[in-house]
C-alpha cells in the first residue's frame, strides 16, 4: 500500500472566516444518512451556503472568483464537535487539498491527516495576510511546504506549525496507518494476552 | 514512579511506537453504530480484511432510529438502509448487535455502561465524539473517525499520540438544584471550547467522589465540548457497585480479581499532572447556553452578553451567535420564550435524569404551545421508567414519551425543530442547525431546567418553579 509522500500542496485559496466552525456546519447531520462517503462534497457547508429552496446564500464558496480553490483558510478551533469523518470527507470531495487555520479540533485534525489532507496552523495576522492577498487576487497560488513548515504566496513567506507525528506521516507517505498497524500483529497478540478482559 | 490513571491505562495498552512517533494503542472495546461504521466495513472489504476481535466489538443502532415508529421498514428509506447495513455487517463479521429485538438497544454511550461492557482500566473507541462518556468508569475512551474505525476493526489497535492530563477538582458541595450538567457547562465556560485540546481531563474532588455513575457520565460525556478528546473519573466503590451483576461484568472469583485489578488503575495520590484546575462547587449555578457553542453559557440569573460591551476576540463571536439566536443583547436569559422541550440524549437520557424530573413534574403541565418530548437513552432505561411509573408522570404532564434513540440531539431521525423554533434541550450541542432545522435554535441546560422551561413556556429557574431545596 504505497502512499503518496505529501511534502507540499499548491493551489488557490478561499477563506471561510470565523472561529469554532463546527462539524455540523461543515456537514449537517441529515446528509450523513448514507452508507458510503460518495457525493458528500456537494453538501459541504450546506446550510450556510444554501437557502431552504436550494438557491445560493452569500458565502465565499459561492463566489465565482473562488471556484477551483484547493486551500481552505479559517479561524480558531476549526472542525470542533463531532468525530464524523463525513466532515473532512466533504471538504476533500469538494476539491480541497489542505486547510490553514489558527487552530484545529483534535479529532477532526487527525481525521484529515488520515485522508492525506494536511492541516497547518498559522497565526491570525498571517492568515489575515493570506486572505487579503487571495481576496485581492483569487488566482494567487499558495504553497504549503510541509518540509520547511512554511506557507508561501506571492513574494511572502510565513511560518506554520503542524503536529510532528502528522507532518512525519504526510511527508514520508505513511499518513494512513493501516499497513503499519497490521504489521504489529505479533506484538498485538502479546499485549492482548496480558489483558484479562480481552479473553474470548 | 507515581502515575495517573491515564498513564497506567495507556502503558498497559501500548503495543509499540510507530515510525511517526505515535503509539500503536490496543483498543480493548470497540463500540460501533450505524452512522460512522458502514464506510469502515466497506474499506475492510476493499482490503480483504477480517475483524480482528469480533468478540470485543459491540454494535447498536441509535442515531437514525425513529422514536415513534417500531415497525420496519422505516418510513425514511435512507434510515432503513442504514439499519439493514449494520445488521448485515454484524452478521457477516460475527459482531454482537444490540438490535431492537434484543431489548438492549439504545444510545451507544448508554448501552455500554448498562451492559457492564464499559469497565475500569480499559481502552474504548467508538466513531462518536461522545465516547468520552465511558471515562466515568476509569476507562480511557476516544471518539474516532471512520478510517480509524477500519483500523480498529482490522487490528483492534489504532495510531494515536499520547495526551497530556489536566486534573479538574470540583471541591465543596453543589447547591440544591445544581446538577452534573451544570458542572460540565460551567467547566467548559471557564476553560473554553478548545481549552482541552491535547488533554485528557481527569475529574475529581469532593463533588465527583459523591457523584453517582450517571452523574459522572454526564460530565465525562461533554469533555469533547471542551476540546478534550477523553475525560475520566478514577474508579471507586461507586463504580464497582454500579458494575456488579451487569451482564458483561465478571462473575464469581473473576469479579474479585477484576476489582483488585481495577483499583490498581486509579491515579496514584502523588502523581504529576500537566495542569491542575480547581473550582469551588458553590460557584456553580444552574447554567443555560445562549449562543452557538457549548462554552457560550451563563447562569440562569445572568443576562445575555451585549456585544457592545464585549472587547477583543470575543466580540465577533458574540455578534455572530446573537444574530443566529435572535436573542436580545443584555436581556435576562430568564423569561426567554421556548417552543420545544427535549429531555434525552447520551448526556442526560439515563434513569436518574428522568427520575429527578419526575420527582418535580408530578401534578404540573407543559405550557400551551410547547412541544415537549422525552426520549429514554436505551430500551433498558425505558423499561425501568415504565416500572417506576415515570413515563406516566411525563405523559400526564403533557410530554410525548418516546422509544430509545439519539432523537432530537442531532435530529438524524424524524424528531426535528421546525424553522427557527427555540428548544430547551438536555443534549450536548447548540451548534447552528444542530437539531435538524437550518435555523433552529438550542439552549442547553439540565433536564430539570428543561422541565421548568416546558411547564412555564419560557427559560426559568427550576429552583423557583419547583421549589427545589425549599425544605
Describe this structure in words.
The complex is a heterodimer of chains A (200) and B (471). In chain A, 31% of the residues lie in helices and 16% in strands. By secondary structure, chain A is an alpha/beta fold. Chain B has a five-stranded parallel sheet, sandwiched between helices. The model of chain B has no long low-confidence stretch (mean pLDDT 97). Chain B starts with a helix and ends in a 6-residue tail after the last helix. By secondary structure, chain B is α/β, with parallel strands linked by helices. Chain B contains 17 helices and 19 strands. At the A-B interface, helix 4, helix 6, helix 7 and helix 8 of A face strand 1, helix 2, helix 3, helix 5 and strand 8 of B.
Main sheet of chain A? 7 strands, mixed
Going by helix content, strand content and strand pairing, the class of chain A is: alpha/beta
What is the CATH-assigned architecture of chain A? Answer: Alpha-Beta Barrel
CATH superfamily of the largest domain in chain B: Aconitase, domain 3
Question: Tags for this entry?
Answer:
heterodimer; A: 200 residues; alpha/beta; Aconitase, domain 4; seven-stranded mixed beta sheet; 7 strands; 31% helix; globular; B: 471 residues; Aconitase, domain 3; 2 domains; five-stranded parallel beta sheet; 17% strand
Task: Give the SSE layout.
The complex is a heterodimer of chains A (200) and B (471).
Chain A: E1 8-15, H1 23-26, H2 46-49, E2 71-73, H3 86-94, E3 98-101, H4 106-114, E4 119-121, H5 124-136, E5 141-145, E6 150-153, E7 156-159, H6 164-171, H7 178-183, H8 185-193
Parallel strand pairs in A: 1-2, 2-3, 3-4
Antiparallel strand pairs in A: 1-5, 5-6, 6-7
Chain B: H1 5-12, E1 14-17, E2 23-26, E3 29-32, H2 38-46, E4 57-60, H3 77-93, E5 96-98, H4 108-114, E6 123-126, E7 140-143, H5 146-155, E8 157-160, E9 164-171, H6 180-191, E10 199-204, H7 206-210, H8 213-221, E11 230-233, H9 237-243, H10 253-265, E12 275-280, E13 287-289, E14 297-299, H11 314-325, E15 340-343, H12 345-348, H13 351-361, E16 371-374, H14 379-387, H15 390-396, E17 400-401, E18 422-425, E19 441-444, H16 447-456, H17 462-465
Parallel strand pairs in B: 3-4, 3-6, 4-5, 6-7, 9-10, 9-12, 10-11, 15-16, 15-18, 16-17, 18-19
Antiparallel strand pairs in B: 1-2, 2-8, 13-14
Helix pairs in contact in B: 2-5, 6-8, 13-15
Amino acid at each position: 500500500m504505497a502512499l503518496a509522500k505529501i511534502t507540499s500542496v499548491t493551489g488557490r485559496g478561499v477563506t471561510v472566516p470565523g472561529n469554532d466552525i463546527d462539524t455540523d456546519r461543515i456537514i449537517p447531520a441529515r446528509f450523513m444518512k448514507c452508507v458510503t462517503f460518495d457525493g458528500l462534497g456537494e453538501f459541504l457547508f450546506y446550510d450556510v451556503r444554501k437557502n431552504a429552496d436550494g438557491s445560493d446564500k452569500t458565502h465565499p464558496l459561492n463566489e465565482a472568483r473562488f471556484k477551483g480553490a484547493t486551500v481552505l483558510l479559517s479561524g480558531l478551533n476549526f472542525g470542533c464537535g463531532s468525530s464524523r469523518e463525513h466532515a473532512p470527507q466533504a471538504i476533500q470531495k469538494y476539491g480541497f487539498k489542505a486547510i490553514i487555520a489558527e487552530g484545529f479540533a483534535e479529532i477532526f485534525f487527525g481525521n484529515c491527516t488520515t485522508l492525506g489532507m494536511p492541516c497547518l496552523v498559522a497565526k491570525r495576522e498571517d492568515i489575515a495576510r493570506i486572505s487579503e492577498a487571495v481576496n485581492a487576487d483569487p488566482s494567487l497560488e499558495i504553497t504549503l511546504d510541509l518540509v520547511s513548515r512554511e506557507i508561501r504566496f506571492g513574494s511572502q513567506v510565513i511560518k506554520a506549525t503542524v503536529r510532528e507525528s502528522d507532518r512525519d506521516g504526510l511527508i514520508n507517505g505513511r499518513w494512513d496507518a493501516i499497513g503499519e498497524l497490521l504489521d504489529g500483529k505479533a506484538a498485538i497478540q502479546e499485549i492482548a494476552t496480558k489483558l484479562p478482559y480481552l479473553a474470548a | 514512579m507515581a502515575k495517573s490513571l491515564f498513564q497506567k491505562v495507556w502503558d498497559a495498552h501500548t503495543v509499540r511506537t510507530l515510525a511517526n512517533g505515535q503509539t500503536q494503542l490496543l483498543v480493548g472495546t470497540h463500540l460501533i453504530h450505524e452512522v460512522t461504521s458502514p464506510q469502515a466495513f466497506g474499506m475492510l472489504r476493499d482490503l480483504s480484511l477480517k475483524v480482528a476481535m469480533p468478540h470485543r466489538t459491540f454494535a447498536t443502532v441509535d442515531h437514525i432510529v425513529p422514536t415513534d415508529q417500531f415497525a420496519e421498514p422505516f418510513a425514511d428509506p435512507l434510515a432503513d438502509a442504514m439499519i439493514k447495513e449494520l445488521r448485515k455487517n454484524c452478521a457477516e463479521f460475527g459482531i454482537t448487535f444490540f438490535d431492537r429485538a434484543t431489548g438492549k438497544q439504545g444510545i451507544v454511550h448508554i448501552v455500554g455502561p448498562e451492559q457492564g461492557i464499559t469497565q475500569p482500566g480499559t481502552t474504548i473507541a467508538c466513531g462518536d465524539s461522545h465516547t468520552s462518556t465511558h471515562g466515568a468508569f476509569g476507562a480511557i475512551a476516544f471518539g474516532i473517525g471512520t478510517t480509524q474505525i477500519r483500523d480498529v476493526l482490522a487490528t483492534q489497535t489504532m495510531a494515536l499520540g499520547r495526551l497530556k492530563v489536566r486534573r479538574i477538582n470540583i471541591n465543596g458541595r453543589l447547591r440544591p438544584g445544581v446538577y452534573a450538567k451544570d458542572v460540565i457547562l460551567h467547566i467548559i465556560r471557564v476553560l473554553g471550547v478548545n481549552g482541552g485540546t491535547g488533554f485528557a481531563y481527569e475529574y475529581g474532588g469532593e463533588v465527583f467522589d459523591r457523584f453517582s455513575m450517571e452523574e459522572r457520565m454526564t460530565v465525562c460525556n461533554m469533555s469533547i465540548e471542551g476540546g478534550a478528546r477523553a475525560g475520566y473519573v478514577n474508579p471507586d466503590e461507586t463504580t464497582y457497585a454500579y458494575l456488579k451483576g451487569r451482564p458483561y461484568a465478571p462473575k464469581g472469583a473473576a469479579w474479585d480479581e477484576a476489582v483488585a485489578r481495577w483499583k490498581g488503575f486509579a491515579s496514584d495520590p502523588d502523581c504529576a499532572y500537566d495542569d491542575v484546575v480547581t473550582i469551588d462547587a458553590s460557584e456553580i449555578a444552574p447554567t443555560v447556553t445562549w449562543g452557538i457553542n457549548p462554552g457560550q453559557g451563563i447562569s440562569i440569573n445572568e443576562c445575555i452578553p451585549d456585544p457592545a460591551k464585549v472587547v477583543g476576540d470575543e466580540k465577533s463571536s458574540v455578534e455572530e451567535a446573537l444574530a443566529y439566536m435572535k436573542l436580545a443583547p443584555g436581556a435576562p436569559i430568564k423569561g426567554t420564550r421556548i417552543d420545544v422541550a427535549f429531555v434525552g440524549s447520551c448526556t442526560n437520557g439515563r434513569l436518574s435524569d428522568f427520575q429527578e424530573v419526575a420527582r418535580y413534574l408530578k401534578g404540573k403541565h407543559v405550557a400551551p404551545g410547547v412541544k415537549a418530548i422525552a426520549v429514554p437513552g436505551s430500551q433498558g432505561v425505558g423499561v425501568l421508567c415504565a416500572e417506576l411509573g415515570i413515563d406516566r408522570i411525563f405523559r400526564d404532564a403533557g410530554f410525548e414519551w418516546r422509544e430509545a434513540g439519539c432523537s432530537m440531539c442531532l435530529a438524524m431521525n424524524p424528531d426535528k425543530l421546525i424553522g427557527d423554533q427555540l428548544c430547551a434541550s438536555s443534549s450536548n450541542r447548540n451548534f447552528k442547525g444542530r437539531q435538524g432545522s437550518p435555523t433552529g435554535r438550542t439552549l442547553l441546560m439540565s433536564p430539570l431546567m428543561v422541565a421548568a422551561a416546558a411547564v412555564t413556556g419560557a427559560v426559568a429557574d427550576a429552583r423557583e418553579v419547583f421549589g427545589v431545596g425549599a425544605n
